[in-house]
Amino acid sequence: MPEPVRVQPPPELERPQPVPDRAGKIALQINTVPIHCDVIVDDKMVGQSPLTVYIDRFSNHVIQISQPGYEDKTKLLDYHVFGNETTYIFLEKLEPKK
User: Fold this and answer.
1) How many Å apart are CA 55 and CA 61, to the nearest integer?
2) Is the pTM of this model over 0.70?
3) C-alpha–C-alpha distance, residues 63 and 37, integer Å
């Protein structure tokens, strides 16, 4: 009886993927109406909504949301609202410019 052929996985599948350091962090899920708004967290552009970013759970944060044709929004997120949650959902509706 022939020996079974062993197939080796590609090398990239053998390496463990790095896990982001999330100690002391909370997932901030940002959803907006309309979607695809530019999102800035603590003066750093993080992308377009909807998105999730990991932020320090023990600090206050400034969230800025903008999209052409709509009034910009700036919100201060007090860290006390996070509680013991693993994810904080931030919802914001932008108003059309007048």
Assistant:
1) 8
2) yes
3) 12
Radius of gyration of the chain (CA): 20
Query: What is the tens place of the pLDDT at every residue in 14-27?
Result: 555 555 567 899 99
Phi and psi at 81, nearest 5°, equal: -70, -15
Please give the structure tokens belonging to residue 44.
Answer: 């750093």
CA 84 to mean position of chain CA atoms: 18
Beta-carbon contacts of residue 33 (< 8 Å; ≥ 6 apart): 92, 93, 94
pLDDT tens sequence across 45-68: 999 999 999 999 999 999 999 999
| CATH 2.60.40 fits domain 23-93 | yes
To which H or E segment does residue 14 belong?
A: helix 11-14
Q: For the residues of 34-74, what is the DSSP string, one character each? A: SSS-EEEETTEEEEESSEEEEEETTS-EEEEEE-TTB--EE
